[in-house]
Amino acid sequence: MNDKRELIRFSNAGKCFSTPGRGDVWAVRDFNLLAHEGQLTCVLGASGCGKTTLLRLAAGLEKPTTGEVVVDSSRVNGAADIGLVTQEGNLLPWRKVLDNIALGPEIQGAKRHKRIAAAREALSRVGLPQKVAKSFPHELSGGMRQRVALGRTLCAGSRIWLMDEPFANLDEPTRHRLQGELLDVWFEDHQTVLFVTHSLEEAVFLADRIVVMAAGRMVAEFQVDLPRPRNRLGDDFVNVLLKVRRVFTETDR
Amino acid sequence: MITPRTAIRKMLLGAMIPMGVILLWYFTAPGSVVVPSVWSVVQILIHPFREPLCLDSTSLADGAAVSVLRMLCGFLLAVITGIPVGLLIGRSRTGREILAPVTAVAMAISPIAWIPITIIVFGLSSPATAVYGQNAWQHGVLDQLRFAIIAVIWMGAFFPIVLNTASGAQHVRQSHIEAATVLGAGKFAVLTKIVLPSASPAIFTGLRLAGGIAWRVIIAAEIFPGTRGGLGYMIAVAHETASYEYAFASIIVIGLIGLCFDAVLRLASLRSTRWMVQER
To answer: Is this complex scored with an ipTM above 0.95?
Structure first.
């Protein structure tokens, strides 16, 4: 029994999109999930299974068609204590790196010197040198852009991080390095993370808990009790990976 | 990166046609009654503050100052009104449905066509007549800013600004808006921090178009009866008195001011859309 506060709750949540060609399409259906404070939950599923819609429901960017989605005890309306990191990083191309990172405090009305100081600290914490502060996003590599996106979420002080395949576009070494850096940040601040991925290895490496999704529904749930830092080549890691893969493959048929 | 060599090449190539025209003018002027000599026009250009004796007009510099002032008033008014209307059309469906048809129709009408109507509506009124009544003529600069002319310039500049702003605001990436919304941005913050900067390249395109139109319109408006002062007025008077050297000098100044105005807008555009320039 987890005695920590519930921060994200999906109760029979469903989301249906009306499309001209295919009629009503249920992206998420009868979905129930509880994510407790400080927990890192990975939502694992094949492309098109509704993972992104699930995250958008949590972010308040979509309204559920059925059931409800509650984040931090308040029904989400888009202005919650949330940070969203997407596959493309979603940085604002007209802002330099430091101003991108400082967006959250700026929206919250922080004075310029305070938000810049906070942004510089976030920049260091995500492993970026101060010299990139004045670069535009397009001048950075994919990995650096994702670090900036992490920095922006960190700088905003969000306690709930919604991450939509943030490392999917990166090469393997960069992906591994960023996974490690994400865990470093998470160890320090213990944000509640809902991390969407289609990579089994990534899910097992990062998660406290893995939720497997197929056709908009939750089909399985695993607790990952492996100690951190996790060794991707260790027997325990591989055993969990195989167990998750078995379920994942069966549901994908 | 532009090297000095490419800059010189660019300048020389750009100067080729104007130099050709000046040479043609130099050789054809002596045999023509209408075309003044190059030297007579240069004399006016190098003494812009000298009042023409043969014309019922102020100096070339005064005329240029009046035209620029009128244009700036109309243009700034168009910027202040055009950007909000463009944002409304771009970001609100209802706003778009109400305003887009009107804008499309109005856009098709030449601003010059509005001149008789604005003269009927505003008459000879100006800020000076509004404040000082019959003594308006004593307040030269304010009296030159006739509402009828300002309104015509506004007509010319308003619609390109509206259409370009609307297009820019309509094509803002939803994911950028969501990035701010999730961090707690309200509608106003989304507008100022996402929509406006994202639409700025389109807005600047609109401003440059509007600047060009406004400058062309002011000259046309000043030629109309009832106007006093300005480069357009100077051309009209020069035509009536067959003082063609003043018409030529005015035309050259019109071209140069138009060029400078566009260069200023282009520079402002490049500065504020550096992120786009570097992405190209």
So the answer is: no
Q: Which two tokens stand for residue A88?
A: 């493309």
Measured in angstroms, the CA of A84 and the nearest CA of chain B are apart by 7
> What is the nearest CA distance from A232 to chain B, expressed in angstroms?
33
Yes or no, beta carbons of B178 and A103 under 8 Å apart: no
pLDDT at A80 over 70: no
Residue A99 lies in a domain: yes
Asked if residue A229 has a cis previous peptide bond (ω within 30° of 0), the answer is yes
Range of the domain at A134: 92-158
Question: Do the chains contact at B275 and A61, CB–CB below 8 Å?
Answer: no
The neighbour count for residue B178, using CB atoms within 10 Å, is 21
Number of domains chain A contains: 1
Alpha-carbon gap, residue B77 to A144, rounded angstroms: 43
Neighbours of B46 (CB within 10 A): 8
| Contact residues, chain A, for B194 at CB < 8 Å | 92
Is residue A39 domain-resident? no
Least reliable range by pLDDT among A40-44, A79-83, B210-214, B218-222: A79-83
What b/e sequence results for A153-191 when a residue is b if at least 16 CB atoms lie within 10 Å of its CB, and e otherwise?
Answer: bbbbbbbbbbbbbbbbebeeebbbebbebbbebbeeeeb
Instruction: Name every residue whose Cβ is closer than 8 Å to that of residue B164 and which is 6 or more positions away in sequence.
Output: B86, B202, B203, B205, B206, B207, B209
Domains and CATH numbers, chain B: 63-272 (1.10.3720.10)
Distance of CA B105 to the CA centre of its chain: 21
Angle between the B60-91 and B93-108 helix axes, to the nearest 10 degrees?
140
Amino acid symbol at A9: R
pLDDT score recorded for residue B278: 54
Decide: residue A220, CB within 10 A, 0-12 exposed, 13-18 middle, 19+ buried. Answer: middle
The answer to the question of residue A249 being in a domain is: no
- DSSP line for B248-264: HHHHHHHHHHHHHHHHH
Give one word for B218, left, alpha or beta, with left for phi > 0 and alpha for psi -120 to 50.
alpha
Q: Which residues of chain B have pLDDT under 70?
A: 1-2, 54-57, 136-140, 226, 277-280
- Chain-wide mean pLDDT for chain B? 86
Give the nearest partner residue to A90 out of B176, B186, B275, using CB atoms. B176
Q: Are A205 and A42 in contact (CB under 8 A)?
A: no
List A74's β-bridge partners, or say none.
A71
Asked whether residue A145 is assigned to any structural domain, the reply reads yes
- Judging contacts by C-beta atoms under 8 Å, the chain A residues touching residue B193 are 103, 106-107
CA atoms within 13 A on the CB side of B52: 30
pLDDT at B276: 76
Paired tokens of B174: 């939803």
Could you tell me which residues come within 8 angstroms of residue B192 by beta carbon, excluding any fewer than 6 positions away? none
Residue B173 pLDDT: 93
